[in-house]
Amino acid sequence: MAINFICFWFTGMCSPFPVPFQFDLLPFFKAAPVNIIVGSEVWVEDPKLAWIDGEVFKITGEQIHVHTSNGKTVVSDISKVFPKDSEASSGGVDDMTKLSYLHEPGVLHNLAMRYELNEIYTYTGNILIAINPFQRLPHLYDTHMMEQYKGAALGELSPHVFAVADVAYRAMINEGKSNSILVSGESGAGKTETTKMLMRYLAYMGGRTGVEGRTVEQQVLESNPVLEAFGNAKTVRNNNSSRFGKFVEIQFDKSGRISGAAIRTYLLERSRVCQISSPERNYHCFYLLCAAAPEVREKYKLESPKSFHYLNQSDCYALDGVDDAEEYLATIRAMDVVGISEDEQEGIFRVVAAILHLGNIEFAKGEEVDSSVIKDERSRFHLNTTAELLKCDAKNLEDALIKRVMVTPEEIITRTLDPVSAISSRDALAKTVYSRLFDWIVDKINNSIGQDPNSKYLIGVLDIYGFESFKFNSFEQFCINFTNEKLQQHFNQHVFKMEQEEYTKEEINWSYIEFVDNQDVLDLIEKKPGGVIALLDEACMFPKSTHETFAQKLYTTFKNHKRFIKPKLSRTSFTISHYAGEVVYLADLFLDKNKDYVIAEHQGLLNVSKCPFVMSLFPPLPNDSSKSSKFSSIGARFKLQLQSLMETLSSTEPHYIRCVKPNSVLKPAIFENLNVIQQLRCGGVLEAIRISCAGYPTRRTFYEFLHRFGVLAPEVLDGNYDDKVACQMILDKMGLKGYQIGKTKVFLRAGQMAELDSRRSEVLGNAARAIQRQCRTYLARKEFIAFRKAAINLQSYWRGELARTMYEQLRREAAALKIQKDFRRYTARKSYSTLRVAAIRLQTGLRAMSARNEFRFRKQTKAAIIIQAHLRCHIAFSYYKSLCKAALITQCGWRRRVARKELRKLKMASRETGALKEAKDKLEKKVEELTWRLQLEKRMRTDLEEEKAKEIAKLHDAVHGMQLQLEEANARVIREQEAARKAIEEAPPVIKETPILIQDTEKIDALTAELENLKALLQSERQAVEEAGKACTVAEAKSAELAKQLEDAERKAEQLQESVQRLEEKLSNSESEIQVLRQQALSMSPTGKSLSMRPKTMIIQRTPENGSFVNGDVKGTPVRGHDMTLAVSNAREPESEEKPQKSLNEKQQVPDNNDVLAYWLSNSSTLLLLLQHTLKASGAASLTPQRRRASSASLFGRMSQGLRASPQSAGLSFLNSRGHGRLDDLRQVEAKYPALLFKQQLTAFLEKIYGMIRDNLKKEISPLLGLCIQAPRTSRASLVKGRSQANAVAQQALIAHWQSIVKSLNNYLKTMKANYVPPFLVRKVFTQIFSFINVQLFNSLLLRRECCSFSNGEYVKTGLAELEQWCCDATEEYAGSAWDELKHIRQAVGFLVIHQKPKKTLIEITKELCPTLSIQQLYRISTMYWDDKYGTHSVSSDVISRMRVMMTEDSNSAVSSSFLLDDDSSIPFSVDDISKSMQKVDITDIDPPPLMRENSGFGFLQPRAE
Questions:
Q1: How many Å is the Cα radius of gyration of the chain?
Q2: 677 with 50: CB under 8 angstroms?
Q3: Would you tell me how many other CB atoms lie within 10 Å of the CB of residue 176?
Q4: Rounded Cα distance, 258 and 210, in Å
Q5: 375 pLDDT above the threshold of 60
Q6: pLDDT at site 1293
Q7: What are phi and psi of 183, to 5 degrees?
Q8: Active site residues
Q9: SS3 content of the chain, % helix, strand, coil (to 5)
Q10: How far apart are CA 1138 and CA 1237, in angstroms?
């Protein structure tokens, strides 16, 4: 049986001082003074920051002067200074074995840089260091993240607790190998959260729901409050320190699923029940019970904790921020959750109260020698109360405390104990009872969780106290630190083993490397005889031994031991130098705390208790062990249990997680160097570094070594040497000794890396000086040439200036004469022009004023006329509109009222199935009535128009006649006026003057009167014409109203017709459902025939003539019509609805044959499309009876007619009774029963084939994507100037992987094209495939820091160009929007390759460069980016800070902060999408294939004679 142990230790690394003990690092990390020169960057010690970086500016002998980064000057010894890697990445390294300088300040600085970027996990080899972020980071622990680490090798992705859990789980499953994960850390370091994450991952990998829907993980965590109440206590610095070892077994079955769990406890600190020191507390349960409700305290006769001896030994009774009364209720609730009944809870608290009362029993010296009695009445009261709570006899309890029975061969002797021995007996009873109670609680929790006795694998969880160092350390701290020494030895052995495996793998010589071990400390403590524990047991067996004699014995025995130190000012103290520092122990109470008697009288007393719970705690013992009391040493038993634990751990393959608390205020973004470095020392991380430094702390691959130190030997790079040989030549040239050359790496001893860097700095410095010398020469010559040129230019300028001055003087004289002449001419012309312009302007103004007055008058007159006309028009039009609006409102109201009545009638009629026919008849009558009324109104409208036309013609004739009469009268008047004028001219002026005037005047009067009559007649005619026009307008309005009513009637008729259609469809659907239910009832009835006994339809094998498909192989061009017809033939009989599904299932037996899958995808999609269209056509058939009665000569038209005419057609049996006379008038409802079933099966079949094709393509390209995300490293030849072909070769190697992906895409596209898969489905396939590529590449980029480099971005960008070219070649018809699915990886790669990142603002990044990426994704890319090509930096620190603030706001607002993408594997289309996207094909001229024509079963497809 393989057993995995996850061990949690160092839970209480407690110390009241900032630096509790001295820890000398110089033996571990020795600096190399020869490597420190002026200008070197180094680390120096700092009292506040532990270590601070600076630059050396002066070296004086062994003293070194450093300018620190905080502006101070520090003088230190050169041996205490460590070199700093100036070329280290700003984001640190994820594995600290990759550090150039593996020392304490380098480790601390790397952790601080990563913590600043929220990278809380860091590897040290296979050791994981986890720093508590004190904030929610949900994106690190969601299901997406667990999926990414599933099956990933350790170190392949970014450091994570899931990676360690996955390694252990895989080793357990694949190798059946025992594993252990040891998680350490002080209180508040995140050990509990790390535990939850480990258990979450294990539940994810092999989880199974537990009792009442709770998982095993939840059940184990729910038991924590109970165990903490009875097993945790306050220590000096930790208010909730575990004082016992908790071993949780997570059990797995043979398939790797969690099948149960169990909790084992050991090493309980029993002495704490009786003895505590200030400021500590006893176990929490005592204080919780004393803070319970008054009735509970009265029931158990409890008072304040100060009144009990076992609690008042310390001044601390309450914890800050903790309410014991609320904790008591929480503990009660937790007991209910884990299944402890109320009676059992009462028994538990009775025992707890009894222990408190037992501690208050005091003894006095008796009358006899060496005897004791109960001291006083108060002690008697507590004795009786203890007996009452334990339900035993008070006298027997007293005897058990103060008397002992000794069994000899001759007789049984009863003796009394002195008061000191009686107190020891009392304390022994209290410790035994509490220990038994704790064990019972653990067993009860195990029974609640449930265990699997047949479990094949186990994963254990060990939670034990950590290293402790207080101001006063006693026996408890001695045992705890002894445990941690054992665990540290196990850790050291594992680290050294890992080192050995690394050296063996690289085939280097490591035999002379000294193993750093703490075995001497363990021998000092546990060696027999002569160890501290052995001497303590020996002292406990002698009654006269005291703590002073014990201390003197230790001083004498270990006076020469290098790990044992005798204090100068104390006679009972001793100091042990542990791996984490020196601890001073007080031996005053060692003897008392080590004694642990197994007293037979106590066993016999409680075994006969009347309380069932108490009696169950002390079952009967064998006869030989119940006669006497035996001495038992707590130290010896502790040693045996620890030895058992170490044997169990040693049988496993360990893994380590070190949890670190970054600050003591428990707030995020605060990194306290002193606090962290102290935890690294106590956690053994620096021990691991010390072990590494003992061997080869610096390891570099050949590529990295040549890339960094190739400048030391340029001739080696120019030569055609192997990488290993080149590294050897460089090291030999530098004169280094003791290094090793492995198979793939160079191993350097401590200090050699600094020496190489010093030589490299010297070479680079010389090169820089040469460059500076050339630059200074160039600048000096350039300055001289500039000076000479300036002098020549200055002389030329002054000569020119003198000539220009003389010329200017001559030019001014000539110009003065010309100016005078021109000025006189100008003044004369200006005066003349002014006078002329004034005259013209005056004339123009007068003329304009006259014209404006005339224009203004005409404009006002015209405006008045227009206003009058518009006002009259507006008044008339407003009156007309009001009349129209009132008429429309009245008509709409009446029609709405009529329509509502009609709607209510229709609703009432639709509720009764029997009234449907009557409603139909009524509606048909109403339609006929409306049609008749429409025709009548049309006729009336026609007659009215004819009458109106006749009246208008008559009016036109009358107007024409009147106009003619008027013209004649005017002509006559004109003629008479001319005649009169001629007569006057011809007559003598004197004689005939008067008569002519009279006669002309009479004629004029007559003509005038006649003219007036004609005008009146014309006016009357005009009025008649206007009235006729008004009548015509009214007639036109009435005609328009009638036309509108006609349109409303037609619309109502259409609505009624649609209502009739819907009612008929509801009726047909109801009848179909009834038929389906009837068929299902028949199939499920006991008397019904079995489905397997039904007649089978004939399945025709495909042959080469009809498009062969034999035994799952496609040959020739697919003939979709044949297979579709086969499917239709299977749906002819209602009894064979399972046949299509069986046939479809047979087609799915070839999931790997993409050609076959594409073939059936094409057939099934086309058949589903035709079925969808057929169902729609049958639903609307009743609307076009003329088309339905017409004979169809097409293939599918004859198919539908044949199906309707066939007496075997599904669903026709219930219609045969209606007569064949109206069979053609029925809609195709009868085909719905098999069609609905077959459509569902066909849809599922289509979706399954689509998913299989898509998943096959995913499987094919998945391995290639893993090779495409990271560019292959260039060879050593690329380091040499002029050898650019290596880059081209490497790039070609990367492009080869992308081209393989493109080849796969082309193959699938070609296959689907050859099988005529609809382009819509092809687009969906490639859209999801490109989305899958985007998810895989983007997630890998975010999880692997080595991929977030500039050169890798260029390589991936080149590969994406290949995919873009493929999308262009495939055309939009088949590729669709596939290229847009790569937006995440495209923008991420674009960010990697963009230049001048520090100059980019957050708005530019989020809005322009990467609008699709979230803040979490941008933050991760920005922090992981490193430029391996040009050495540039990522975005500015201000942008990083703003990103961190935005991430914090998102986490506070419960916004999902997961930075990983999720692959969508759903079906991205529906049947309607297929129906809308596929082109409609005209198949009216298609004839059935010969195979169908020859088969009698398809006779209905043949053309029928009319």
A1: 53
A2: yes
A3: 11
A4: 9
A5: yes
A6: 59
A7: -105, 120
A8: 187-188, 192, 238, 241-242, 466, 468
A9: 65, 10, 25
A10: 9
pLDDT tens for residues 954-972? 888 888 888 888 888 888 8
pLDDT for the residue numbered 1096: 36
CA–CA dist 183, 191 (Å, integer): 7
Per-residue 3-state assignment (H helix, E strand, C coil) for 739-784:
CEECCCEEEECCCHHHHHHHHHHHHHHHHHHHHHHHHHHHHHHHHH
CA 11 to chain centre: 32
How far is 47 from 557, CA to CA, in rounded Å? 39
- Maximum pairwise Cα distance, the chain: 206
CB atoms within 10 A of CB 411: 7
pLDDT of 1448-1468, one tens digit each? 777 665 455 567 888 888 888
pLDDT of residue 797: 94
> What stretch of H or E contains 1353?
helix 1350-1375
Q: Are 80 and 99 in contact (CB under 8 A)?
A: no
Question: What residues contact 1033, with CB distance under 8 A and at least 6 apart?
Answer: none
Judge if the upstream peptide bond of residue 1488 is cis by omega within 30 degrees of 0.
Answer: no
The angle, 0 to 180 degrees and rounded to 10, between the axes of the packed helices 1319-1343 and 1350-1375 is: 170
**Residues 348, 438: Cα–Cα separation, whole Å:** 9
From CA 1333, how far away is CA 1461, in angstroms rounded?
Answer: 11
CB 66 within 8 A of CB 38: no
> d(Cα 1123, Cα 1143) in Å, to the nearest integer?
11
Length of the chain equals 1506
CA distance 1332 to 1462: 9
pLDDT tens, position by position, 612-653 = 888 888 887 665 444 445 567 778 888 888 888 888 777 777
Contact 1276, 703 (CB under 8 A): yes
Give residues with Cβ within 8 angstroms of 53, minimum separation 6: 41, 42, 43, 68, 69, 84, 105, 109
Count the alpha carbons within 13 Å of 641 in the hemisphere toward its beta carbon.
Answer: 21
With b for 16 or more beta-carbon neighbours within 10 A and e for fewer, the 953-967 pattern comes to: eebeeebeebeeebe
For every residue of 314-330, DSSP letters joined together read SS--S-TT--HHHHHHH
709 and 752 Cβ atoms separated by less than 8 Å: no
* Spatial separation of the C-alpha atoms in residues 832 and 887, rounded to whole Å: 80
Instruction: Confirm if 252 and 216 have CB atoms less than 8 A apart.
Output: no
- Give start and end residues of each alpha helix (H) in 527-573: 532-541, 547-557
CA distance 1103 to 1174: 28
CB atoms within 10 A of CB 1022: 12
Q: Letter for the amino acid at 667?
A: K
How many H helices and E strands in the chain? 44, 27
Contact call for residues 649 and 158 (beta carbons, < 8 A)? no
At 347, give phi and psi (nearest 5°). Answer: -60, -40
For 19, the token pair is: 């630096």
CA distances from 1491 to 1130, 1193, 1483 (A): 16, 19, 18
CA-to-CA distance for 1077 and 1074, rounded, in angstroms? 5
The mean of the pLDDT values for the chain is 78
- Cα–Cα nearest to 389, from 365, 359, 367: 359
The amino acid at 1236? L
Instruction: Specify the range with the lowest mean pLDDT, choosing from 232-241, 795-804, 838-847, 1490-1499.
Output: 1490-1499
- The rounded distance, in Å, linking the Cα atoms of 1011 and 1017 is 10
Residue 348 one-letter amino acid: I
**Contact between 1052 and 1044 (Cβ < 8 Å):** no
Report d(CA 1177, CA 1206) in Å as an integer. 19
98 in Cβ contact with 81 (< 8 Å): no
Say which residue the tokens 């199906």 belong to.
1203
- What tokens were used for 846? 């007068």
CA-CA distance, 172 to 168, in Å (whole number)? 6
Residue type, 460: G
